Amino acid sequence: MTHSYATKLILLASAFSGSAACAQLPVVDISLENDLSNHQLLLHLRANDYDFGELLSNLVFTVRWPETSTATLSFGTSEWCPAPSSAFNPAPSAMVTPGNGFKYRSWNSIGLALLSEIQDDGGCDQTLFADTWTHVLTIPVSNDPNGTFFEIADDQFTADNNRGFFVSLNGEQFTGTGTPPTEITGEIYSFTTDVSAVNAPADLVLSPNPAESTTSIAWPGSGPWSVAVFDATGRMVKQQRMSGPTGVLATHDLAAGSYELRALEGRVVRSATLIVVR
Question: Domain range for residue 240?
C-alpha cells in the first residue's frame, strides 16, 4: 500500500502524537558559519542532551545581511541529506528588502519521513547527535566582493512575518512537563571562519576597555564597516553598522563578562577582547 506525501505526514504525526508529549525531545540550536574564503554559508543544527533521528516536522530560519551589500544567496544543497529527500528538504523564499537596512531570505523544511529512514524511503539515514554541531546545509554566496557578514535573523521583521527560527519535532513544539514547558526551538549562533585579516590595518583600539556603558572603537579603515560582539559560547549578541574612523558601541545592555568583538570592512576582519563591567 502506498501513500501520498501529505497522507504520510498525517500518519507519521498521528503515530507520534500519543508518545511525543511524554517522550524526551531535544532542544535544537541553529548556527550559521560565514565561510568567507569559500564564498558560502554553512548551516548547522545541534540537538541538546538527546540524539534525534525521528521526524523533523518543521524547520524555519531566515538569513539577513546588510541592504547595501550586492551579495545574493543560492538555494543551498545538503550532503548530509541530499535531494530528493522528504525528511529534510529546505526550500527558500524570494529575497526580500523591507527597507529596514537589511535583506532577507527564508528557508522552510517540512519533514515527511524520519531522518533515520534510508534514503530510498525518503529519509536521510542520519541522526542529530546530542550536543554536537551537525553541518546540514551549504548555501553558496555570489556577487560578494566585499565579504558580507550574514546571520540568522531574529528581529522585528521576522517576528511580524512569521519567519523567525522555529523547530517542530514529531509534530511537537515543546518538550518536558514543566510549567511553562520548554520550547524545542533553541538558540541562534553566528560566526565566521575568517577571523584573521587579509591585508589588515592596525589592531582595533577600544577605549575604555573594560567598558561600563559605552566604548569607542578606533578603526583605521576608509569605508563603512560593521561590528559584531560574540559571547563566550560563540553566540552573536550585538551587531552595529559604523562609518568613519571611530565608532561608539553601547555596552549597557550586555552582561558583565568577556566578549570577542569583530570589526569587518570588506574582506578585512579584525578582532579584539571587550570586557564589560558593572
Answer: 205-276
